[in-house]
Design brief:
The structure holds 2 protein chains of 2 kinds. Chain A is about 35% helix and about 25% strand. Chain A is built from 10 helices and 11 strands. Chain A starts with 5 loop residues before the first strand and ends in a 5-residue tail after the last helix. By secondary structure, chain B is mainly alpha-helical. Chain B has 2 domains: about 110 residues, no CATH class; about 230 residues, MetI-like fold (Orthogonal Bundle). Helix content of chain B is about 65%, strand content about 5%. Chain B has 17 helices and 3 strands. The longest helix of chain B is centred in the first third of the chain and has 37 residues. In chain B, about 35% of the residues are buried. The chains are: A alpha/beta, B mainly alpha. At the A-B interface, helix 2, strand 7, helix 3 and helix 6 of A face helix 13 and helix 14 of B.
Amino acid sequence: MFLNDVVIETHHLNIYYGDFKAVGEVNLQIPEKKITAIIGPSGCGKSTLLRAFNRMNELVPNAHIEGEIIFDGRNLYDRTVDPVEVRYRIGMVFQRPNPFPKSIYENVAWAARIHGYKGNLDELVETTLKKAALWDEVKDILKQSALSLSGGQQQRLCVARALAIQPEVILMDEPASALDPIATLKIEELMQSLKENYTIVIVTHNMQQAARASDYTAMMMLMDGTRSGTVIEFDETNKIFTRPSDKRTEDYVTGRFG
Amino acid sequence: MRNASHIFEDDLSARTRAGKRWQVVFLAATILAIISLTLLLINILNSVFGFVVLDSKVDPATLIVDGIPLEDQSSDQLIGVLKMNLSSGAFNKLEKEKSFAQRDRAEIYQLVEERVLKVEVLESWSLLDSIFKQEEVKAEYQTLLETHPNAELKFISWLTRQRLVRPQTSEVMTTGIRTAILGSLWTIFITILFAFPVGVGAAIYLEEYARENWLNRIIQTNINNLAGVPSIIYGILGLAIFVRTLEPLTSGAVFGVVDPLTANGRTVLSAGLTLGLLILPLIIINSQEAIRAVPQSLRNAGYGLGATKWQVIKAHVLPNAMPGVLTGTILAISRAIGETAPLVVVGASTAISFDPTSPFSKFTTLPIQIYQWTARPQAEWQHVAGAAILVLLVLLLGLNAVAILMRNRLSHKY
């Protein structure tokens, strides 16, 4: 498959925790301003791969990578690249909603403030919360604790927080797995509205979600006889779900195993 | 009944009974603890209140000037009383120590009490004896009256407002604990100033920055072990380092502010730093626990937004760990306030009547004072010691209350 606008590109990417190779030989292209889903059975390294894209896995002791991840013409893991800058341009939403135990306002404002935001914080908070489709629900309770929100609202607040610093890519690690179907739907709607301006990469266990919400899908699976996962197939989502070229993908998406 | 009962030999009532048994055991443990604490409190109160037989060398009635009883006389009148009743040599000596013009009324009144009235404790009883053995107390008083016709039987509290504000003296009825209270406060102040920032800083480093390697594991193990080292060892350490080696610093010599009364390193500063070393491991360990308890997801959220390590620590880790850090610090400081042994080694003064005025002052502390008084053979000093213990407990509870309030304010923010 050939893509025109590629944001992130990996070359022979191997990810290790100590001596253990968690992900091996990934050559993947993430298309710009599209939603790319990463699917696959548990423990095949989906989250590990996702966290490699903004160097979050470095927070795990002994984690390291081989190969390259090219973003904006540079290898993200180049010595001259500061991981803080990477995470600033490639934002992340986590599996469980993790708002700061501060006010709703402060959750969004803090993100902007640490990067020295010079504009009007109030305006930024409002536009950001509107982008995250949360403004109408929280505009009267901005000073309340973010922990008083429901799980789905908290997760959208986490999206808003990530948007506040205007990243180019947003990584989502199973963002709806802790939410009920209605809250999940809202997150999916939010993703659709965001893809005009942002590239989104989402890890999901939920096959319907990948089929519904994504434009491209990467299928990951453990390599034969090892405990290392790799991408076995990457294509447009409707192709992955209707006529996959790999037999294992077909088995997986049709529910024959996994 | 369960369908699968043929493969389970379940005796639900036995399980319930076992649970009840343990509940009773735990309840008993709690009751035992409460009883111990109650006994402790009763024991202290027992020595603080009670009957005494007092005898003064001079009947206060004879010292009434112009119809004004001694307690209400002005400074000048009291000085007159002193002049009349003391030899001129003794009076001049007092004047030479500190001129009467400089002494306030309370001080002069105390002198009258000590030098003229010379109130003596002939006999003293504990609170329980005073309540339950009143007959014996009265019989004893009658026999004492035969030899001391002026003696009077009084129910008193050994803890009075005057004791709190008076310096230490050698007379049991007039001695006070102001010197010791101020000494304790000064020492604890320096202890906190040293141990809190250093301890929390070390905890942050060990939890957030230090890599998992053999060197840091050794450091961690040693900190854990240091928390169990007997306090007297810290006293010896403090003596060697702060009192002897760093004497120019701890005596104030390098700052040119040596207290003329000390001129060596046995100062508030040495004591505070020694206690600081003593509680440093406790603060580090407790702070580490608190920092570790901050959910990793919170740190991830911060890092995920492109925050630097310090931004994450400052905005999220520390504020969320602070209630736990403060709790640990409270416990550590409570321990430091009650420490006696290391201060004996570092060289707390046993008998000083001058208030500590700077980190370079000689000092005594409440536990030292209590220790010294309880070591005396005369029964009446046990009562004064009891009064000092009560003050120490109140001081401790007061500091704890302040810290708990601070903690609650921090943790109720959200």
